[in-house]
């Protein structure tokens, strides 16, 4: 299996998680972050907009990754990388903004550590599965 197919799967899971997080009633306001109850707070409005933008950018990156797998065009690799990087930066900005205003950093630090560990495990597992040795 081509490694880039795994990138498409990872990006799809990331986009789905962004959209689930946005719509999920777990923001402490009795609604999804872009719902009417949560939009009363500017922090929620800004955070929701940034997360939605990130999710949409990841969907665009998926399109370019599919083009890369289908056509081997180098420009689509560059485009998907740039777009995914922008999505990551915007998502980080949204989460930092939210947590800075809510003053809850320890769970975020633990989430970063968990995310890095999951990413490492996924990369190592994929390399193990796809290796020829």
Topology at a glance:
Layout: H1 3-23, H2 42-71, H3 74-102, H4 106-130
Helix pairs in contact: 1-2, 2-3
Any overview of this molecule?
- With 133 residues, this protein is mainly α.
- It folds into two domains: 100 residues, no CATH class; 31 residues.
- The protein has four helices and no strands.
- Helix 1 runs antiparallel to helix 2 and helix 2 packs antiparallel against helix 3.
- The longest helix is centred in the middle third of the chain and has 30 residues.
- It starts with a helix and ends with a helix.
- The mean pLDDT is 91.
- This is Expressed conserved protein.
- Keywords: Membrane, Transmembrane, Transmembrane helix.
- It comes from Echinococcus multilocularis (Fox tapeworm).
Supply the key terms.
133 residues, mainly alpha, 2 domains, 4 helices, 79% helix, globular, Expressed conserved protein, transmembrane, transmembrane helix, membrane
Work out the helicity level. Answer: over 70%
- Radius of gyration using CA atoms only: 17 Å
Q: How many domains, in number, for the residues?
A: 2
- Summarize the helix and strand pattern as letters: HHHH
Q: Counting H and I runs of at least 4 residues, what is the number of helices?
A: 4
Low-confidence parts, pLDDT < 50 over ≥5 residues?
none
Distance between the termini: 15 Å
State the secondary-structure class. Answer: mainly alpha
How many DSSP-defined strands? 0
Largest sheet: none
The geometry reads as globular
Tell me what portion of residues adopts beta-strand conformation: under 5%
Average of per-residue pLDDT values: 91
Protein name: Expressed conserved protein
Transmembrane segments: 7-27, 47-71, 78-99, 105-129
Keywords: Membrane, Transmembrane, Transmembrane helix
Organism: Echinococcus multilocularis
């Amino acid at each position: 299996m081509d490694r880039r197919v795994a990138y498409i799967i990872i990006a799809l899971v990331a986009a789905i998680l962004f959209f689930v997080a946005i719509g999920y009633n777990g923001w402490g306001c009795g609604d999804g972050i872009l719902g009417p109850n949560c939009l009363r707070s500017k922090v929620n409005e800004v955070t929701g907009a940034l997360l939605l933008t990130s999710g949409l950018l990841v969907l665009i990156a998926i399109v370019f990754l599919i083009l890369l797998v289908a056509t081997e065009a180098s420009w689509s690799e560059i485009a998907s990388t740039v777009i995914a990087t922008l999505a990551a930066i915007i998502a980080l900005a949204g989460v930092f903004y939210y947590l800075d205003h809510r003053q809850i950093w320890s769970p975020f630090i633990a989430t970063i550590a968990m995310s890095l560990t999951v990413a490492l495990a996924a990369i190592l597992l994929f390399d193990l599965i796809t290796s020829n040795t």
